[in-house]
Amino acid sequence: MDLKSGSSVLEKQAAALKRMLTISTGSGTKSHAAAPEPSWKILVYDNAGKDIISPILSVRDLQDLGVTLHLNLLSERDAIPDVSAVYFVMPTSDNVRKICEDIRNQMYDTYHLNFISPIPRELLELIAGAAVDGNCVSQVAKVYDQYGNFISLDDDLYVLKKKANELSYFALNSNEIKDTEMSLLIDGIVDGLFSVFVTMGVVPIIRAPRNNAAAMVAERLDQKIRENLRDPRNNLFTAENAQHGQFSFHRPLLIVIDRNVDIATPLHHSWTYQALVHDILDYQLNCVTLDDAKPAEIIKNKRKPKSYDLGSRDKFWQTQKGSPFPAVAQAVQEELEKYKSSEEDVLRLKHEMGLDNETDETVFLLSDNTAKLTSAVTSLPELLERKKNINLHTELATALLERIKMRKLDILFEMEEKLMARRTTDESFVELLSDPLAGTPEDKMRLFLIAYVCGPTMSDALVKQCTDLLEKNGCDMLPFHYIRQWKTFSKVAVATQVQYGGGGTTSVQMFSKLMSQGSQFVMEGVKNFVVKKHDLPITRIVDALLERKSLPEVEDYQYLDPKAIRAPDPSTLAKNRQNFPEAFVFVVGGGSFVEYQNLVDYKNKSQSTAKRITYGCTELMNASIFLNQLSALGKQKH
To answer: What is the DSSP string of 318-348?
Structure first.
């Protein structure tokens, strides 16, 4: 089955947000396209609502939907009594109290209250009381549970939280967490996953391990969907209630995986564009922030760091985000040369027409004189947009290149690939740890932890030698204290040692263009790799469950079908080779762009029955975030 357009998680969530903001039809059942004109309105959101909207709808998109102003619920806001307000917030006590104040103070003309997760009855009664007190019951136009508690970053990528402090690996693995707190954490994850499948309009078949946090998430999600399917008045998975989307009778597979299956990958140094940007720069919710100025210069000049959107509208980003960095630098250089060639064509035409000193407006007026000039002029806006995009990626690639050279990230990446493929010796690894120019203390700790987890079992003497070197280099040793205990007690750690085979790198000659003086990027001293991709542990698990392959790690995986009356017989299950049109992979405890890209590569090269594989996680972590969490866990253990 080919998945129809508009069926990705991002497209479904975008459609739901647009319906929410289309209030001109009254009933809210017509599409935005069907409305002759959008009604003008104000959008009021909290931080969670802003995080959900910002990667999907730009300011221009909001304006097209009639949003003249967008404000944070908890900020100081002026009353605008003649305008409707659309609220998009979490149903917390603080948020509801603020909404009640708005209603009592007659802040807006009508109130369209959209809650990201279902609002509890007691909070709903507070709103009803405020509407009665303010004598404006008719002005509360609607109260709606949106089931939108997740953030779509791409067609095949979503997260539950921007910064998942309460859903983090640390929170889920802390030995100080109480049972009641853990239960609330699991419920929060289940709420987000339930929202994903309500938005998609499908009931998944769930596969998950046993006896860990991922198992608890899978079992509670199964129960939550079952309870909803049994409720005829509030069944969110019927054709009528599937969020106006195309209700699908082809059910996807949801694979819930615990982060403890693979501790090494989130620590791995990256070599692909998107993963490098996330690892090295400030990259959140499809937005990268760049600032090379010193703090004193920022204060003196009052200059804000520059932020750039790297969303689906950026064609270069979409094409190159999974490419190795040297290939990206080559592509940026080629785009720059194409732009210069196009610019020269326009200047030459102006010269031939004798319009060297004329304004663009004059050229436009005379453009009917020649088809060539008309073509050149109409391409000017596109040229300017291309130039802006090239400048962005030139700046990004330059920032990455500087850090790669400064920290020898190419050497660290190559060594880690060899360690994960078990193709190196202790001597070469220790030599790199000893190099004072190879990476920061954090980089060295990442390298050592990967060797400790993925390589052959280290002797006590080698561990002592390495830890002495790390301490000498000023490394925080707490992450190692936690990983040492994790490896001792975790059954998963034993299996992890044999799961990274097949990877590695081969150095090839650097691109000649990038070695020339005319290139923007002087790549001398940076290695160029042909990378043989690993199938990372999570990708191996996905492949085994989709293709019914025998793999020790998945032999004990649960099979949960929320529509089934009773659990299937394992022997029947083994014979039933069911094809899934789509697979959702969800990592409890945080995911990474390295892992996401590995799944994308697997999907592109495999003959899998699934037409799309969507990756989700509680939060997207870079190595720095993960190390901080390991450090906090190590502090508890040590």
So the answer is: HHHTTSBHHHHHHHHHHHHHHHHHHHHHHHH
Alpha helices in 353-501 (DSSP H): 360-365, 371-378, 380-407, 409-420, 426-434, 441-454, 460-472, 478-489, 491-496
> 550 in a domain, yes or no?
yes
DSSP state of 425: -
Number of domains in the chain: 2
Please identify, among 146, 171, 203, the residue that sits at the C-terminal boundary of a domain.
Answer: 146
Q: CATH number of the domain that 32 lies in? A: 3.40.50.2060
SS3 content of the chain, % helix, strand, coil (to 5): 50, 15, 35
Domain annotation covers residue 108? yes
Q: What is the DSSP string of 15-77?
A: HHHHHHH--TTSSS-S-GGGSSSPPPEEEEE-HHHHHHHTTT--HHHHHHTTEEEEEETTS--
| Residues 25, 139 within the same domain | yes
Residue 254 tokens, joined: 């949801």
Residue 268 · residue 599 · CB < 8 Å: no
Residues 81 and 138 in one domain: yes
The CATH number of whichever domain residue 607 belongs to comes to 3.40.50.1910
Pair (98, 193) in one structural domain: no
Token pair, residue 5, equals 């357009």
Residue 522, domain member (yes or no)? no
Q: What is the pLDDT of residues 457-506, one digit of tens each?
A: 888 999 999 999 999 989 999 999 999 989 887 754 444 444 565 455 55
Domain boundary among 131, 146, 161: 146
Contact 258, 213 (CB under 8 A): yes
d(CA 554, CA 635): 32
Task: Say if 545 falls within a structural domain.
Answer: yes
Cα Dmax for the chain:
83
Task: Quote the pLDDT of residue 512.
Answer: 45
269 CB-near residues (< 8 Å, 6+ apart):
279, 409, 412, 413, 416, 443, 446, 447, 623
Would you tell me the crossing angle of helices 325-352 and 273-280 to the nearest 10 degrees?
A: 100
Q: What is the value of pTM for the model shown?
A: 0.87
Structure tokens at 294: 């010193």
| Order of strands, sheet of 282-284, starting from the edge strand that comes earlier in the sequence | 282-284, 287-290, 306-309
User: CA separation (Å) from 121 to 118, 124, 221, 618?
Assistant: 9, 5, 22, 27
Same domain for 113 and 177? no
Total count of residues recorded for the chain: 638
187 and 240 inside one domain: yes
Rounded to whole angstroms, the Cα distance separating 367 from 371 reads 8
CA–CA distance, 16 with 275 (Å, rounded to integer): 29
User: CB count, 10 Å around CB of 434?
Assistant: 14
Cα separation, 189 vs 176, in Å, equals 20
Regions of the chain short of the pLDDT cut 70: 1-6, 24-38, 164-165, 239-249, 292-303, 343-380, 424-425, 491-525, 527, 529-534, 567-577, 608-609, 638
Tokens of 85: 């307000």
The residue range of the domain holding 186 is: 152-262+537-637
Nearest CA to 207 out of 551, 595, 605, 598 is that of 551
Q: Which residues contact 451 (CB under 8 A, 6 or more apart)?
A: 419, 429, 458, 466
Q: Do 54 and 116 belong to one domain?
A: yes
- In this structure, the answer to whether residues 132 and 167 fall within a common structural domain is no
Looking at the fold, whether 188 and 253 belong to one and the same domain comes out as yes
